Amino acid sequence: MSGTEKYQGLTQKQVAESRKRSGRNELAAAVKPSFFKIALKEFSEPAFLLLIGAACIYFALGEPRDGCIMLVFVAASGAVNLYQEWRTDKTLDALKNLSSPKVTVIRDAREQEIDSAELVPGDVMLLAEGQKISADAEILFCDGLGVDESALTGESDIVWKTDKKDEHGRHWRQDRCYAGTNVLTGRAVTKVSAIGLGTEYGKIGRDVAEAPDRPTPLEKQTRKLVRNCSFFSLALMLLVVAATLKNGSGFIDAALSGITIAMATIPEEFPVVMTVFLAMGAWRLARRNALIRRIPSVETLGAVTVLCVDKTGTLTQNRMALRELVPCGRHGEKELLEVSAMACETDPYDPMETALLKRAADEGLDVKALQGHELVCEYPFSSEARMMGHVWDGENGLTLAAKGSPENIFKLCRLDENEKRYMEEQQEQLSDSGCRVLAVAVGRGLKEPPRELADATLELVGLAAFMDPPRETVPASIAACNNAGIRVAMITGDNSTTAHRIAHEVGLAGGPGEGEEHEIITGDELEALDDAALTERLKKVTIFSRILPREKMRIVSAFHAAGEVTAMTGDGVNDAPALKYADIGIAMGNRGTQVAREAADMVLLDDDFSTIVATVRDGRLIYDNIRKAMEYVIVIHIPIALSALAAPLLGLPTLLLPVHVVLLEMIIDPTCSVVFERQPAEPDIMSRPPRPANSAIVTRGLFAKAVMQGLAIFAAVFGSYTALLPYGPERARTFFLAALVLSNLFLVYENRSNSLPFWTKTDEKLDAVPWVINLAILAGLFVISNVPALASAAKVKPLSLTDFAAAIGVAAAASFWWEIVKFCRRDNR
Hints:
Radius of gyration: 35 Å
CATH architecture of the domain at 300-318 and 471-613: 3-Layer(aba) Sandwich
CATH superfamily of the domain at 300-318 and 471-613: HAD superfamily/HAD-like
Distance between the termini: 77 Å
Number of strands: 21
Shape: elongated
Number of helices: 31
C-alpha cells in the first residue's frame, strides 16, 4: 500500500514479547464434553433412571426377557437424543468458516502477510476494500475508509472512519475499527489495540459463555410429575401389600400383588413421551430448515409470549436498496441513473453503489459503456468532504460525475431559491422516512478537472434515497404472531426514525390497543431506568433503538423477570448475549455470525423469518400432543391400577399378573409415543394465546377429564369381568383384556381432538403408521388368545366371535361417551 513508508511496525523480538503477554488472536473455543460424559448426562436424567428402575423390577420378578426389552428401549430412546446432538454439531461445523483469514502488517519496516491469529497488540495492520477486520485497532491514517459494522453494532448504515480523535462516541468510535466488521471502501493504516477476548467481539463472547443454562418449563414440570407419580406408586404398593396380608393371603401373593400394582402405576411412559416427542419434533424441524441445538427448546417454542427481533438482517435484508429517485428540474430519472453510474466505482463494495448500478442495469442502461470512457481522475470519498467524484474523457470533452451528502453537493451546484427549497424539502422528507439520501451532480464539457472536488461548479441532477428493505415474508409472519397472541418487539442499534419506519412497513403493532403509536426507548433512556422502571415500561414499548449488546441482554432479562417466555432472533455478534439469555434464542444460519449460531437454541438454515412462525406452530402442536399423550397414559392406567387393586381387596380371583401388565405396557408405549406424536394440529392452534408460563402440563381440567374417562373404562371392563366370573376366571380375564385393549384403541380416536368429533377428517394426508400399530395390536391380541402355548402362559383362553363383538360394544360405550361432552361444549360456544 502506498504511503506506508513512514511506518516501521514491530520487530520480531517485540512481536514475541507481545505474544507472550497477550497470547494468540483467538477466541477461546468452548471445550466440548466427551461422548461418554454426554451419554452419562443423558442417562442420569430422572426420566431415564425411572425407565431403568422399571427394568430392574422386571429382572427382580424373574422376567429377564422383559427387563432386556425395557433396557433396549432405554438405549434406543437415549440414542435418538445423542444422534440429534451429533447431527446438530456436524451441521454447525459445516456452517463455520474454518479458514484463518490473512492480514497485511508492517513488521521490521516491510509489509508482510500473516494469519490473523498471529496478530499482537502494537502491530501496524493495513486495511483495504473487502477485507474482514481481525482485531480492534486505532486508526493512524485513512483514505475514504467506510466500514460495515452491522454485525457488531446492529446499525445497517456504512460507518465512515477518521484518523482524528473521536471523543464524542457513546461507545463505538469513528477513530477506531473493530474485530468482526468489514471494510466496504477505502484504505487505512491502523495500530492493533486489542486481540482475542480483549476485543469488543471477544467481550461479547465472554458474556455468552457466562449466561446460565435454565431448564425449560416442560422439563421442570415433567420432573415434578414423575417424582409425584413415583411416590404415589410406592404408597399404593405398600397399601396393597398390607391389605392382601390382612385378607389372609401369604407373603408371596401379597408381594406379587404389590409389585403388580406398582408396575401398573409407575408412569414410565411420561419420560418416553418427552424423549420421543421432542426428539422427533427436532428431527422434523431440521427438515424444515430449523436446526434445534437444545432439544427441550422444541417445546419452549410453543410457549413464547414475547418475540424480540433484531432489525438488521432479521426484519430487513441487511443490504441497501434504492428506494426512490427525485430528479431536479429538467433532468429525468434516466439521466439521474446515468450520472449516478458514472460517479460509482467500477467494482464497488459500497452497497449503495451496488444498488445504483443494479437499478441502472434493470432500466436498460449500458453501465459498462457509461464507465467505458477513459477515467481522467477521481476524487475519493472522505469523512470530512462526504462526497466523491469521477472525471471521464468522452466524445464531448470531460464530464465530472459526483455524488455525496446533499448539504455538500448543494454547495457546488447552481440552484435558484425555488429549486433549492424544493430539493431541501424532498431531502428532509426522505430522511424523516428513514432513508439515507445522496445528491447527484454533473459538470459537462470541462476543459480540465478541478484541483479539488470542492472547487467544481456543477449542475444538480437529483436525489437518490436508499433503505435496508424488509424481508418479503416478515409482514405476514408478524401478523401471524399477533394473531397467535405473541407480542413482537424490535431491538436495534439503529436510530429511532429508521426503526419506526421499518416497524410501520412490516406491520409491527403499535401497542396494546390496535392503532396505537409506537412507543420507543433509546439506549440513553434505558440506561437511566432502574430494573423496576424498565419492567413497567416494557408493558407498552414496541421499539428499542440505539441499543448496545449488553442492553439487549438486559431487555431480554427484564422480559424474563416479568414472567414472559421470551424468544430472541438475531444474526450479529451483538445479538449473541441476548440470544443466550432468552428462553429460546433463534439465530440466522446463512447470514448469521458464528458467535450468534453458537449462542442460539435454534438456527434457521434458510434465514427466513416465516420459518419462526412455522416452528412456533410446531412447538404448540408438540406440546398439545404431549398433553394428549400424558392424558392418555393417565386414563389407561386408571382401569389397570384400579382393577389390580380391586380384585385382591374384594377377595376376587387374581385378575392381573405382572405378565398382563407387561403386555398392556407393550400396547400403551407405542400408542402414546408414536400414535399421539403424529396427531394433526387443532384448528385453533395459531389463533389462541400462548399458554401461561407457569401452567402445569397436567392441569386440573385435564386430570379431571382423564379420571372421568378412566373411571368409565374401569367400570365397563371390571364390571364385565365380575359379570363373567361365573363362566370361569379365564374367560372373564380374556374378555376383560380384550375390552381394555379395544378401549385403548378407541380412546386414541376420541382424544385426538378436544373439540372435533372423532370421525372428523383433517386436511393432512392420511398417516398409515397409526393404522399399522392398531392392526398389529389387534393381531397380537388374537395370537396371544388363540395360540395354546401363549394363552397358557398368559392364563387366557380363545375369544369367541360373540365375546369379541360384545367386547367391541363395551369398549365403544366406555370410550365414545365423551362425544356427548364435546357436543355440549360446542353447542354452548
